[in-house]
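Something for you to look into today, if you have time. Just paste the record in under my message, thanks.
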Amino acid sequence: MNENTLQFAWFQRDGETYLPLPLAQSLWKAEQMHGVAISGLLARALEEAVTAAGRADLVPARYHVDLFRPAAMIATTTEATVVREGTRLMLVDAVVRQEGEVVARGSATFLRPTVNPDGGIWSAQDRPVAPPVELMPESGHPDTPFFASDTPWSDDFGAHQNAGRHQTWQTAVPIVLDEACTPFQAVASVADATSMVTNWGSGGVQFINTDISVVLSRLPDGVVLGLRSTDHLAVDGIGAGTAEVFDRHGSIGTATVSSLANTRRTVDFSAFDAESHHGSPGA
């Protein structure tokens, strides 16, 4: 089976409509779309609004998505609105619609880079490190992601179903078929895997995230990047997860997710067949 047959992207464009491809199917429910695809599509709409405004001087610094209604595997549209524009920033909102209903919304703050001040500020020293290039080439193919936990880096999902600290290293899947994925689209879509690295434990993924938030000091150096769990807290079925975002040149920001316990539909990776689920698992 070649790449064209696989249709290696989350969506196929039909005019102003986006048709989800098989890769966009969630593991929670067959007729449901996963957050990786939705987040990537929102990032694309936000980025296009900034480009249309002619603001090539701005870079994304803050990104947030609310996943408040399950997105179905049906025709999808996006809308973006510039909320505020100034000399040093632009705030943009976007929504994803299905059958006239808003199923997710996103917003981003784009800022104009300058220079760092001279004063010293405390910063953490324990930083994540990308897997060896021999294991995951620098220009990776958007295939099965790699994980590290209580066991070393590998794409063996079953080996990582444990209570250890999780990391992932992924090459972003293009958002739209026959379109190149941008670094912002890559980090926005891969950031949904914050739910996996923070919520995945010995019993599988037993929390489902309701949002994604990312703050960036810079864009990734391409479309290959990683997430490492920083913390996970859960009380009365409500989880708060934080992860560090990094590429081969170092850490670039932080991602967080709010989650709800979803034990009736636990995503169990102990017997996950990576060969039949190319691309991000997209729980």
Summary: Residues 60 and 110 are 4 Å apart (CA to CA). The chain has one domain: 3-112+142-276. The helical segments are 3-6, 35-52, 183-190, 194-199. The chain has a mean pLDDT of 91.
